[in-house]
Design brief:
The structure is a single chain. This protein is α+β, with helices and mostly antiparallel strands. The chain folds into two domains: 162 residues, Cytidine Deaminase, domain 2 (3-Layer(aba) Sandwich), CATH 3.40.140; 121 residues, Cytidine Deaminase, domain 2. 31% of the residues lie in helices and 24% in strands. An eight-stranded mixed sheet has the order 10-9-8-7-6-4-5-16, with helices on both faces. A six-stranded mixed sheet has the order 3-12-11-13-14-15, with helices on both faces. Strands 1-2 form a two-stranded antiparallel sheet. Strand 6, helix 3 and strand 7 form a beta-alpha-beta unit. It is elongated, with a radius of gyration of 24 Å. This is RadC-like JAB domain-containing protein.
């Protein structure tokens, strides 16, 4: 594996993605199944802290995943994960009938539901949509006997979490094994040594940073630099963009941006054209107008920096209405499939012994 940094600068290679998350290994859906959680028995601060710590292993820095944990008595008995691998949003349920089937199952088994999702930015503050989804789930998971089956909602971030306590109907923070107010959380990021694209001087700093990266054997005649940025404005990935593709293969650029953003946990991309090339800038500008994929394009020109007009910039790589496949994993279904395969293997072994 190549060094991530050279003299403090990201070691970016042509035609590849640089990201501080390249060594990240996602956790298995079964890693918490069977583990202790006493939230269903008593929603004390200690139980919120312990459960939050248990499921914090699913703090994926790349993209959001919605998770349903089924809790019975004092342990997690099942785990459903749903993701479309988009860094700044996720689907809460894949089908309209899923929640009803889950609600009936909870009532039948006398189990309870804990909802969780992660914020790849590392900041676990609930968004307006998070709050609305929580209210919806809190109202939905009341069974036919008027018993509340929804325990609450945990949002996992870096070294801390936030949670909605379904019993007390409020949002709080968790950090250092303590409950706190949300505004008391102190978030640690793994990319704080990289420039932030927010602020008055951000574009100038980004242009200077691109120069330092290009000094590492980047062919600036034929390549530009793409900075992948998360919702908090931090750079989480850097790649080169082949300039010729803006004329010859724009679909390849779209596919590269989509794929790289998922690997880097980025919701937007900023592009820097290292050398003054007005024809390239105009071609990229046309691409941005048509696809709405790039947040801004910067290009040095004499003593100033040319950039996209505001109406041609896009704050997000992915947009509502785009067709993005969902990935759904259900520990119950997976366990059933495993048992079937084991039984089939056992039967095949038995048939083999008879044949002998």
């Amino acid at each position: 594996m190549n060094e991530l940094y050279l003299n403090g600068i990201p070691n970016v290679k042509q035609d590849s993605l640089w990201t501080p998350f390249e060594s990240y290994v996602p956790r298995n859906i079964f890693d918490v199944v069977g583990k202790k959680s006493e939230l269903a028995v008593n929603q004390t601060p200690a139980n919120w802290i312990n459960t939050s710590k248990l499921i914090s292993i699913y703090n994926d820095p790349r993209f959001e995943t919605a998770r349903y944990f089924i809790i019975k008595d004092n342990k997690i008995t099942a785990h459903i994960s749903i993701t479309n691998e988009i860094p700044n949003s996720t689907s809460v349920y894949p089908h309209t009938w899923m929640l009803n089937r889950l609600r009936l199952q909870l009532e039948k088994d006398n189990s309870y539901l804990l909802f969780q999702h992660n914020h790849p930015s590392g900041y676990p503050y609930p968004s307006e949509n998070d709050i609305n989804v929580t209210k919806y789930l809190n109202g939905y998971f009341i069974d036919n006997h008027e018993k509340q089956r929804f325990l609450g909602h945990i949002i996992t971030g870096n070294n801390c979490s936030s949670f909605y306590d379904g019993k007390n109907h409020n949002w709080k923070g968790i950090q250092n094994d303590s409950i706190c107010r949300l505004d008391e959380l102190q978030i640690r990021t793994v990319y704080s040594n990289l420039p932030n694209v927010q602020g008055n001087l951000a574009q100038l700093k980004l242009n200077e940073y691109a120069k330092q990266i290009c000094n590492n054997k980047i062919d600036t005649d034929n390549y530009s630099v793409g900075f992948y940025v998360n919702a908090a404005g931090f750079i989480t990935g850097i790649s080169t963009l082949n300039n010729s593709n803006f004329w010859n293969n724009q679909q390849k650029i779209i596919e590269e941006i989509n794929e790289n953003s998922k690997k880097a946990g980025a919701s937007s991309i900023y592009m820097v054209i290292p050398k003054n090339n007005i024809h390239l800038f105009e071609q990229v500008e046309d691409f941005c107008t048509r696809t709405k994929k790039i947040a801004n394009v910067l290009m040095p020109s004499d003593e100033r920096i040319i950039q996209l007009a505001e109406n041609k910039c896009s704050s997000s790589i992915f947009h509502s209405g785009e067709s993005v496949p969902l990935k759904v994993l259900d520990s119950r279904e997976m366990s059933s499939q495993i048992r079937k395969l084991q039984q089939q293997k056992k039967n095949n072994q038995f048939d083999y012994e008879i044949d002998r």
